[in-house]
Design brief:
Number of helices: 15
Order of helices and strands: HHHHHEEHHHHHEHEHEEHEHHEE
Number of strands: 9
Strand content: 5-15%
Strand order of the largest sheet: 5-4-3-6-7-9-8
Helix content: 40-55%
Shape: elongated
Largest sheet: 7 strands, mixed
Distance between the termini: 42 Å
Structural class: alpha/beta
């Protein structure tokens, strides 16, 4: 089982053998090519063909016949997949003449693990082309890779409603995969206090608002988001039968003219603050502070990379920060627990309770009050 990460100790040692470190360095050196090799294996159906062959495995020529890809094409992809641990050779493969490919554990993850698939297609469809401009993004403090989607956008959020269907699906599958998994555990915590009015800042497609209305028959949710998102949220709320209990407030939370509803029972921000710099987070929290009443509970749901159980999860979050750098906005990231709390508390809000390890992705639900 993967080792747990609770502190910095894993990052303080460098016990890897030199020969293994050299192999890890080669993985980095060839990463763009190996990534696209996996994409080809997935999109040609070759990985599925090999999975269906079971432990017996399947030869290169038979894969070629089933996939319609030349033996040369199958060969170079499968040989690279062997080196990556995505594929293995069957037990009775004694030479190239009779070798057969079987699916390795890593290959199974690429085919069947929801986290891996959400990350993979998000990286391919949203991040891959723009990642070339990561260096310029770091230098300039702007998402320079965003131009591969369109020249007129300053952040990716403005472009979401206009993305092509495949790219849009990959973005929302990624976004919802992470946050939605924690909802079943977060709902009882938030609604234990029976809030009648809840402001959902960054409510996106109304996933939380709809889940709230289904969980609690009395609550009214107001979604605050950009106009493109509120339009989608209104449609989804109506289709779910909650048009009378879910309303919207369109605007940019960073703009002075965007006002929040006054004195709600609860404020909800799910995987929202990671879309902003620490300075902007403090600014947003100040606006929430000013709108909140003395009894308002402010809930922040975030995956914090230093509060993860497994190193794969922490690694995924650290990598997601690079998406924010080169594609999303150029100034935000996936935060650690202490830095996020400190930024929010600069507004005058104070942390009351912290619930960690919600859902399989180890979300943290932080409750703040005046």
């Amino acid at each position: 089982m993967d080792k747990a990460i609770y502190n910095y100790d894993d990052f303080k040692s460098d016990k890897i053998r030199a020969v293994d470190a050299k192999f890890e360095a080669q993985k980095i050196a060839f990463a763009p090519l190996t990534f696209q090799a996996v994409r080809a294996l997935l999109e040609t159906g070759i990985l599925n063909i090999i999975e269906d062959s079971g432990d017996k495995g399947i030869s290169c020529s038979d894969i070629s016949a089933k996939s319609g890809i030349s033996e040369y094409g199958v060969g170079v992809l499968c040989e690279m997949a062997l080196g990556m641990g995505v594929l293995r050779l069957s037990a009775d493969s004694e030479s190239q003449k009779n070798e057969k490919f079987t699916l390795g554990k890593t290959g199974w993850m690429l085919l069947e693990d929801d986290l891996t698939r959400a990350n993979f297609f998000f990286t391919n469809d949203i991040c891959y082309k723009g990642a070339w401009d990561l260096l310029d993004s770091v230098k300039n403090g702007k998402p320079e890779g965003l131009k591969v989607i369109g020249e007129k956008w300053t952040t990716i959020y403005e472009a979401l409603s206009t993305l092509p269907d495949r790219e849009k699906k990959s973005w929302f599958d990624f976004d919802h995969f992470y946050s939605d998994i924690a909802f079943p555990e977060a709902l009882p915590i938030v609604y234990s206090k029976k809030p009648k009015t809840l402001v959902d800042i960054g409510g996106n497609t109304a996933k939380w608002a709809i889940a709230s209305c289904r969980f609690n028959s009395d609550v009214h949710v107001t979604i605050v988001d950009l106009p493109g998102q509120t339009a989608v949220a209104e449609t989804n709320a109506a289709e779910a039968g909650f048009a009378d209990r879910i309303s919207t407030c369109a605007g940019n939370i960073l703009k002075e003219e965007t006002k929040l509803p006054s004195k709600p029972d609860a404020v909800w921000m799910s995987q929202f603050l990671d879309c902003f710099s620490l300075h902007q987070i403090s600014k947003i929290a100040k606006k929430v502070y000013e709108a909140a009443g003395e009894n308002t509970s402010v809930y922040v749901l975030e995956p914090l990379w230093d509060k993860q159980h497994f190193s794969a999860s922490a690694y995924s979050l650290q990598a997601t920060s690079l998406y924010f750098t080169c594609m999303a906005n150029g100034n935000s990231k996936m935060y650690r627990y202490e830095e996020l709390v400190n930024a929010i508390e600069e507004s005058g809000l104070k942390l009351k309770t912290a619930h960690h390890n919600l859902g399989s992705n180890c979300y943290s639900l932080l409750e703040f009050v005046k």
